[in-house]
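Why run this: before we spend reagent on co-expression, it is cheaper to look at a predicted model of the complex and decide which construct boundaries make sense. The entries below are exactly what would go into the expression plan.
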Amino acid sequence: MSPFNNLLCMLLGISFTVWFTLLLVFIIVPAIFGLSFGIRGLYMKTLLKELKEIRRNGSSRDLDGSASSTTTGPSPSTSEFEMSDTFYFCRRGIESIVDDEVTKRFTAEELESWNLLTRSNYNFQHISTRLTVLWGLGVVIRYGFLLPLRLTLAITGVSLLVVFTTMIGFLPNGRVKHFLSEKVHLMCYRICVRALTAIITYHHSENKPKNGGICVANHTSPIDVIILASDGCYAMVGQIHGGLMGLIQKSMVKACPHIWFERSEVKDRHLVAKRLSDHVKDKSKLPILIFPEGTCINNTSVMMFKKGSFEIASTVYPVAIKYDPRFGDAFWNSSKFGMVNYLLRMMSSWAIVCSVWYLPPMSRQEGEDAVQFANRVKAAIARQGGLVDLLWDGGLKRGKVKDTFKEEQQKLYSKILVGTMCLQSSLNMSS
Amino acid sequence: MGLQGWRNVLALKTSKNNNRAAWQRAFPVPLSHSQITRLYSRFHSLDKGENGALSREDFQRIPELAINPLGDRIINAFFPEGEDQANFRGFMRTLAHFRPVEDNEKNKDLTSGEPLNSRTNKLLFAFRLYDLDRDDKISRDELLQVLRMMVGVNISDEQLGSIADRTIQEADTNGDMCISFSEFIKVLEKVDVEQKMSIRFLH
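The model came back. Tokens follow.
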């Protein structure tokens, strides 16, 4: 028994050492210097080839568009009330029941063809044994090899972040601290990027946000932060959480000024606006990163931007982020999954492939109010990312729609009727 | 999706290979196989409580429906008398009224009696939107209430009252100051009901 035990211990020791050396050489060291061996790119190409094979084997289907509406309004030619006027509203209502533009933005996007992840297997029937075998193989690879690897990296990345930023916090404020804090932040975020096997393509890096500006982007998941912060340094804005998140937040703020709010302060819009303006005025501070939608949307559309961040007088740097859903769905459905569950799902997907576009900076023009400015920025982001530009509020995920919209509809219809009413009543009076 | 839900979807898919008539017997509504599958996905995504039936709140969660002035009346059409839950069968039956009429050509051999999306049945659906107390008559009061829903606060009571009076006067043929279903049909005989009360279900 004893020599066998010794042998076992030796083997375990050796494999751990090899494992960690490989990790260090191929992943962590390049992350520190921002280099890449191209392993992830190769992995992505292989996956793509496999998925194309599967698609050819007929595991695809035609996605329906929304029930097309050839709606004509209540006909303006007959502006007297007719009993058929209800038909217009009725038909619009039924169309929205069959398919609407809003509710589908809060669940994961449906795929055209299966990507071998059970979680994306929605309405795909059993095609062939070969596919099931491939799927089984996929499960083994993802859970047996990729997940432990990624977990190790994630833990390394986060602990390094906490440790180093706390250490830097002891330095006096100045250029050295600033320089070191930048390097540390970048390094740790790059390790996290590798922990998710995120393959990111940055476009138009000449438009990267500069100090004293505000960076706005569409929001799909908390990973957006990691993706943007691994390419540039930002001051984050958010609410202080408890637990691990809180620890990370507290140590980050020691190294460089992020803007964290207490829960009670979040409600006070003036306080929030003031702190943001103060930060922006100081040109030595990093650009602020804000997600104006206020909630996670499923990356098929951009919903209403809250005007708060657009009221602050400064340049806005829009950024569009588009994920490729074939490799894993990045959307965080917060009503369905908690954060830990979500991260585990992310780490057991194939990869996270996304494109980031840095758009040219925009400023508020003369005579434009905050809402119009916000809509202009939103339209630019939607256009670049190939997303649908919606006016609906992302808050509809949890809350009810405001009655004012219904009142608008009623007003429109009344206008059509009222035209003849004045005529009628004057006719009645004279007869 | 619950286990029963998946069983249903599987039954739908496998039955495509079986006799079309047998499948139609299981779901006697004029919708195609893929349309039904699509509607089932939609039903399931609206069913937040995952209990196989929709409540009124589930419908209200659709923003475009919530801002529709007649939203409440439309939602009501899905719930049979006195019930608070709409199952998938009922959901499909109600939506089947809106299938375009020309698609009926495929179903001629199978339907006994009038299909749900016939002109008469579409008109019946519209009639029931007005008939709040389900007594098969549209009274002046009911007409006023529906009008009020559509115009909100923008038109005065007197104006609305005169619109209602005029409408009833033009439609009422038997002098009971209410509009019955046959009077309703007569008033709308020149209206292109088939086109106005149909939507495209893609498949």
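Residues 157-171 of chain B form the longest helix (15 residues). Chain B is about 55% helix and 5% strand. Bring this page to Monday's planning discussion.
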